[in-house]
Design a protein that fits this description.
3 domains; 5-stranded mixed beta sheet; about 60% helix; about 5% strand
Length: about 325
């Protein structure tokens, strides 16, 4: 006997004859619920009812309750013969589609969209600024452009372009404020450790906070340095020591020979911060930042001592 699941019920078939069946409720929400369970590879309660008979099954998800066999034989089981119509299926598919869209929503999407919008605003500001300088230079070739100065006197398109620049600057400021707020709310540990901008860029590169938490520290360390990394793989150049996290003040101000070590340590703490944020854990951002500071100070002190020893050895050789 074969177990066949349709959108309106489960049927136990012998040859072409239906021996037993269990119909789903004639409710679009109930049908949608079962369709989603099937999509997720789960076994329905109606299907488990026939497990004692160990029927043949044509789906691998049902291997637990029957013997899997990939059969192509078609059995004509019509929904209208059991009081179901296609309009009910249509409603169920709409409900199931909405549920899937809701489930697939990425909580990090607002952060990713905000940082991408900021980058695009910055890029447009640079383009507008160059256009404004060039246009202004036609009227005052020997004057340096000071924002707003003499532009109103010229008027016309130049004045409109200047207004657009000012509006763009306001929008960027608003976006930066929004990013700070959403990072404090959605990723407080990461925000405290690396700041809203670096944190948002890391999330955008990883795809989500959860993805960032699942990455190894070595990958986090070089996020943003993909071009240099592939050049290392292809041409054998020096591997990158850091990516976007180089912008962090602690790494940026460190001695050149310590930046790689501090970046590795920082990447490990970023992974911990992302894991805490992804799982709504306790706030430890300040403690994580302090541990990075201590590690950086320790490496800097070691570097200074080794530098002094090296100079003394050179003097002895002389």
């Amino acid at each position: 006997m074969r177990l066949i699941t349709k959108w309106f019920g489960v049927f136990l078939v012998y040859g072409h004859e239906i021996r037993e069946y269990a119909l789903f409720p004639k409710d679009a929400s109930e049908i949608a619920f079962r369709l989603l369970k099937i999509r997720n590879g789960e076994i329905l309660a109606e299907e488990r009812r026939f497990s004692e008979q160990r029927p043949r099954v044509g789906e691998r998800r049902l291997s637990e309750i029957g013997r899997f066999r990939d059969e192509k034989r078609i059995v004509d089981i019509r929904p209208e013969d059991y009081g179901f119509d296609m309009h009910l299926l249509h409603e169920a598919l709409i409900i199931a589609g909405r549920e899937e869209v809701e489930a697939s929503k990425n909580p990090s999407n607002d952060i990713i969209q905000a940082i991408n919008a900021m980058d695009e605003i910055m890029e447009s500001q640079n383009i507008l600024s160059e256009r404004l300088k060039e246009w202004y230079g036609y009227h005052h070739p020997f004057d340096e452009l000071v924002e707003g100065k003499k532009i109103k006197e010229i008027g016309g398109g130049l004045s409109s372009l200047n207004s657009l620049m000012n509006k763009s600057a306001e929008t960027r400021s608003d976006m930066e404020k929004y990013l700070r707020e959403i990072m404090e709310e959605s990723a407080p540990n990461l925000n405290a450790l690396v700041g809203p901008t670096i944190g948002a860029r890391l999330i955008a590169m990883a795809g989500s906070v959860r993805n960032l938490a699942s990455m190894p520290s070595s990958t986090i360390q070089v996020l943003g340095a993909e071009t240099a990394f592939f050049r290392f793989l292809k041409e054998g150049t020096k591997p990158p020591k850091h990516g976007i996290i180089y912008q962090h003040p602690i790494i940026h101000r460190a001695r050149r020979d310590n930046r790689g070590r501090i970046s590795r340590f920082m990447a490990g703490k970023i992974r911990i911060a992302a894991a805490l944020d992804a799982n709504h854990g306790d706030f430890m951002g300040d403690a994580l930042l302090e541990s990075v500071r201590k590690r950086a100070d320790e490496l800097e002190r070691r570097g200074k001592k080794s530098g002094k020893k090296g100079r003394k050895k050179k003097r002895k050789r002389k």
